[in-house]
Specification:
The complex is a heterodimer of chains A (301) and B (374).
Chain A lengths: L1 H22 E4 L3 E7 L2 E6 L3 E4 L6 E7 L3 E11 L5 E12 L2 H8 L3 H15 L8 H4 L9 H16 L5 E12 L2 H70 L3 H16 L5 E4 L10 H4 L4 H4 L1
Antiparallel strand pairs in A: 1-4, 2-3, 2-5, 6-7, 7-8
Helix pairs in contact in A: 3-5
Chain B lengths: L8 H5 L9 H38 L1 E4 L4 E6 L2 E2 L7 E2 L2 E4 L6 E6 L5 E8 L5 H6 L17 E2 L5 E12 L2 H6 L4 H17 L4 H7 L1 H19 L3 E2 L5 E6 L5 H70 L1 H19 L2 E4 L31
Antiparallel strand pairs in B: 1-5, 2-3, 2-4, 2-6, 7-9, 8-9, 9-10, 9-11
Helix pairs in contact in B: 5-7, 6-7, 8-9
Classes of the chains: A alpha+beta (301), B alpha+beta (374).
Chain lengths: 301, 374
């Protein structure tokens, strides 16, 4: 009896496993699924978990990766509105949005979906033709429309895929931006010429700035000296004014004051290495007049 | 006597004749017993095996989450738990065996790196091994030679490296098939976006830091928009820029010319500092000289006024004598101090002498001219 029970339990477990395998399937967090019955669409599953089904060949389950896939489109040459050639590569992030439509459009083949998307993206690049070169590349940030161009390309792609292929394009951006080969050599020539101009500019600006700085410095120095001279004159003037107060004392006897000043002046002027040539009338040598010619005449006088 | 229960049974049996054993029936009993024994043994083995299987089942569900990881347990493909409760922290955990449960490990503690070389020059393996730059070709091929276009329409080389950590493991793992690949595209985009708004000179030399910050800002903007679930710390985007080999000499010459210009300006600034400092020094000397002179003047005049006041009474007492006395005293001093003194007596004819003096600027030995008669 006991042996029968164990056998029954084992058989039941095996049966449950077998039934589960036949009648259930898993949809992972990263997946969506479509269930078809005799090849005809039955239902879509967008939530993860254990789901029921009828066994094959009655029902068939198609599971698709629901995560954002990245697609990189290689370089395409395009022309801007102002007739400048550009080569541009873009990337896109897309995912399966409607598993039923996706299955019906591409038979669930991700590669086919990417091919279609590449075609749509290639066409969307024609948006560049509505913009000038400076809308993509400019140091004037106000006229730069890099984001706007990317958004417009995304809008075009989204409009084409929405509800048609069962996919959604969530993001799109410029991956690389370049020039045709022949134009790169022209750009190099221009860059070299511009650098030559820059060299001349830097040299002349260096000379100019240096001269300006020197001239400004000289002017500043002269100004400092002129201001100092003016200030000195002012100081001396004030000193003269103050000194003149003392001159009041000299008014009491101007002839004495003048005499004393002259005396002082003589002393000052003959202070150093004086070479004196004295005539016979020079006091006190006038006393010698008599000695030279008529001796003692002056002395007597 | 016959009914005595105390008699042993075999004694009764011994009284009856024992039937002769059937040889065939004896073989069956032995076989059945052996089979039963074998089944019992097999059953025990099965029980043991089942026990072992149950143990193996239980132990097979044990798994370890490493210190730099978190794990997400999926039951029938659906994450177990909600929000942060989905994340299993480092340690020992248990799950039902596949296909009931499955575990996804996410290395949140690791720093991941993505490098963008879409704008960098192509090197042959030999050049890369030797650390050499490519030879100038006169042009660049789109898709082969990486480069970016600067805001002023020039061609430059730029590359970037991005380091990040996984901030939101659920989003990072379940929303993107290859988040690293998408980040690579984002970094490429940021590099071209930043290049398109900087002049070549700024990106290459003058404002490399701002260029790098612009790349980082763009990456942050796109990562937030896409909800990539990664965290990029400040300074974890590093960029490098170089001029193309075809024009690098021209760029170097510009840098050289700029430096030479700067040197000229620096020399002029040095001169300017010297000139203004000298002028300031001279001005100080002038002002101090003026102050000294003014002080001297005032002091001297004051002293003279004082002297005048003192001399005035004596002068008024006898002016002539006073003047002669002072004059004589002064002449005495002058003649004493004078280095050279020449006395010309009066000519006999009463006419003045003609003197001719030859004076140098600093006559060491003044020569006396011989007076010549007219």
């Amino acid at each position: 009896m006991k042996r029968n029970l164990i056998t029954l339990i084992t058989a039941a477990v095996l049966l449950v496993i077998f039934v589960c395998m036949l009648f259930t399937f898993q949809v992972r967090q990263t997946e969506v699924a479509v269930v078809t019955t005799f090849g005809e669409y039955s239902r879509s599953i967008t939530e993860p978990g254990l789901k029921g089904r009828l066994p094959w060949p009655i029902q068939k389950v198609y599971e698709f990766d629901n995560r954002l896939q990245t697609l990189e489109r290689k370089f395409d040459e395009t022309i801007t509105k102002d007739q400048k050639n550009l080569v541009i590569a873009v990337y896109a992030g897309w995912r399966v949005a409607d598993p039923r439509v996706f299955l019906e459009s591409f038979n669930g083949d991700m590669a086919k979906a990417e091919q279609k998307l590449e075609e749509i993206i290639r066409n969307a690049k024609s948006i560049i033709g509505r913009y000038n070169f400076s809308d993509l590349i400019s140091t004037n940030l106000a006229e730069l429309k890099f984001d706007q161009i990317e958004k417009e390309m995304l809008d075009v792609v989204q409009a084409q895929v929405k509800g048609t292929y069962g996919i959604a394009v969530d993001t799109m951006g410029i991956k690389q931006l370049g020039l045709p080969e022949s134009i790169t050599s022209i750009v190099f020539e221009r860059m070299r010429a511009e650098r030559q101009q820059l060299i001349a500019t830097y040299q002349s600006e260096g000379d100019r700035d240096a001269k300006n700085i020197r001239a400004d410095a000289d002017a500043q120095a002269n100004k400092i000296l002129a201001e100092a001279s003016g200030e000195a004159k002012k100081v001396l003037g004030e000193a003269d004014a103050k000194a003149s107060e003392y001159y009041e004392a000299f008014r009491k006897k101007p002839e004495l004051a003048i005499f004393l000043m002259q005396l002082n002046a003589i002393e000052q002027s003959l202070k150093d290495r004086a070479y004196l040539i004295l005539g016979p009338q020079t006091p006190p040598f006038n006393l010698l007049n008599g000695a030279a010619g008529d001796s003692g005449s002056s002395l007597k006088k | 006597m016959d009914n005595d229960p105390s008699k042993p049974e075999h004694e009764h049996g011994a009284a009856r004749p024992k039937p002769a054993p059937d040889p065939a029936h004896g073989v069956e009993d032995v076989s059945a017993g052996a089979l039963s024994e074998a089944l019992r043994s097999s059953f025990n083995v099965v029980k043991l095996l089942m026990g072992a299987l149950v143990l193996a089942f239980v132990l097979s569900g044990v798994f370890t989450v490493k210190p730099n990881q978190v794990a997400i347990k999926l039951r029938f493909g659906k994450p177990v738990g909600v929000g942060d409760g989905q994340l299993l922290k480092p340690g020992l955990h248990w799950k039902f065996p596949y296909p009931i449960d499955d575990v996804v490990y996410v290395p949140v503690g690791e720093t991941h790196t993505v490098t963008s070389t879409a704008g960098w020059y192509y090197q042959t393996p030999e050049e890369a091994a030797a650390g050499q730059k490519p030879q100038p070709q006169g042009m660049l091929r789109a898709g082969v030679d990486g480069y970016t276009l600067s805001g002023d329409g020039d061609i430059i080389h730029a590359r970037a490296t991005l380091s990040y950590r996984i901030k939101d493991p659920v989003s990072y793992v379940f929303s993107f098939r290859n988040a690293t690949n998408l980040l690579q595209h984002v970094l490429d985009n940021a590099l071209f976006y930043a290049s398109a708004r900087f002049t070549a000179d700024d990106a290459l030399y003058r404002n490399k830091l701002a260029f790098q910050e612009s790349v980082q800002a763009r990456v942050g903007q796109l990562v937030d928009h896409l909800k990539l679930g990664v965290k990029i710390e400040s300074g974890e985007v590093r960029t490098d820029t170089q001029a193309p080999v075809d024009v690098v000499e021209a760029f170097n010459n510009v840098v050289k010319a700029e430096n030479q210009g700067n040197i000229k300006v620096q020399e002029a600034e040095t001169y300017a500092r010297g000139a203004t400092n000298k002028a300031a020094g001279d001005a100080t000397v002038i002002l101090r000289g003026a102050t000294t002179a003014s002080n001297y003047l005032v002091t001297t005049i004051a002293a003279e006024a004082d002297r005048f006041e003192k001399l005035l009474p004596r002068y008024e007492a006898n002016p002539e004598l006073f003047i002669q006395r002072l004059l004589s005293e002064k002449m005495g001093q002058i003649l004493t101090n004078a280095q050279y003194k020449v006395f010309l007596p009066e000519r006999p004819d009463g006419k003045p002498w003609e003197l001719r003096l030859q004076l140098s600027k600093e006559p060491d030995v003044p020569k006396k001219e011989t007076p010549k008669p007219e």
